[in-house]
Design goal:
It contains three helices and eleven strands. It is α+β, with helices and mostly antiparallel strands. Strands 2-11-10-4-5 form a five-stranded mixed β-sheet, with no helix packed on it. It has a four-stranded antiparallel β-sheet with strand order 1-3-7-6. Strands 8-9 form a two-stranded antiparallel sheet. A hairpin with a 2-residue loop joins strand 4 and strand 5.
Length: 238
């Protein structure tokens, strides 16, 4: 056997050995279930901070006007919350003042507290047991709280409004002096008990003649009497 043939046989043997080794390693990998590791990358986005807006459109409440707030909920919801009034001694809570919320789909609109609703508001007495009407002339500031919500994000806002409600002026109406009562003619008592009659005195119509009739009637009577006396004496003398 020459050297060239021997070299070819050795090369073939080495090739077969290499192929068998590769097949064994491949079979072991399939049997053991080993898979190359895969690295996963995930991205997270941070939500934009929720910042609703509310501004006061009415600078002051005088007891004659509504209180209006301009709001921009950024597409969320808004809920009026607690209210307090302030005087020189501190704050007192206000009980359930209704409001009107008018917001479009974009979240822009207004919240209105009507003048009548504010004037009819209730608070607590000094013992915090009885509800009483708010004496607005005692307070100079009102606190309004609002809650906003959007996609499980919650925000609160507080707005203060100056109050200057004056006490109503007391007007005194002049009284008209009463007229003196007219004298009435007393009624004559009737014969039957329990019955009353009213006598109305009628005056004779005036003719313009101012002659004293009673005087002339008296003279006529005296003249008649004198005539009778003279006639009697004449008969006696005859």
């Amino acid at each position: 056997m020459n050297k060239k043939l021997m070299t070819m046989l050795v090369a073939c043997a080495l090739s077969v050995s290499a192929l068998s080794t590769t097949a064994v390693f491949a079979e072991d990998a399939v049997v053991t279930g080993e898979t190359p590791a895969v690295t996963e990358t995930t991205t997270t986005t941070t939500p934009v901070a929720y910042e609703p807006e509310i501004t006061l459109a009415t600078p002051r409440w005088t007891g004659d006007n509504d209180i209006v707030f301009d709001v921009d909920t950024k597409g969320g919801a808004v809920y009026p919350q607690e209210m307090y009034v302030y005087d020189a001694d501190g704050a007192m809570p206000i009980i359930s003042v209704p409001s009107r919320v008018e917001v479009n789909e974009e979240g822009k609109g207004m919240i209105t507290f009507t003048n009548d609703a504010l004037k009819n508001a209730k608070t607590w007495d000094d013992t915090f047991t009885n509800q009483i009407s708010v004496d607005w002339t005692k307070y100079n500031k009102i606190e309004f709280s609002f809650a906003f919500e959007l996609d499980n994000q919650y925000k609160s806002r507080t707005v203060y409004v100056e109050a200057s409600v004056k006490a109503p002026e007391i007007t005194v109406k002049p009284t008209t002096p009463s007229q003196p009562a007219q004298p009435t003619t007393p009624a004559k008592p009737a014969g039957n008990k329990g019955a009353t009659t009213t006598t109305i005195k009628k005056e004779a119509p005036k003719t313009g003649d101012t002659v004293n009739v009673a005087l002339y009637a008296s003279l006529l009577v005296v003249s008649a009497l004198a005539a009778v006396v003279l006639a009697t004496k004449k008969k006696v003398t005859e």
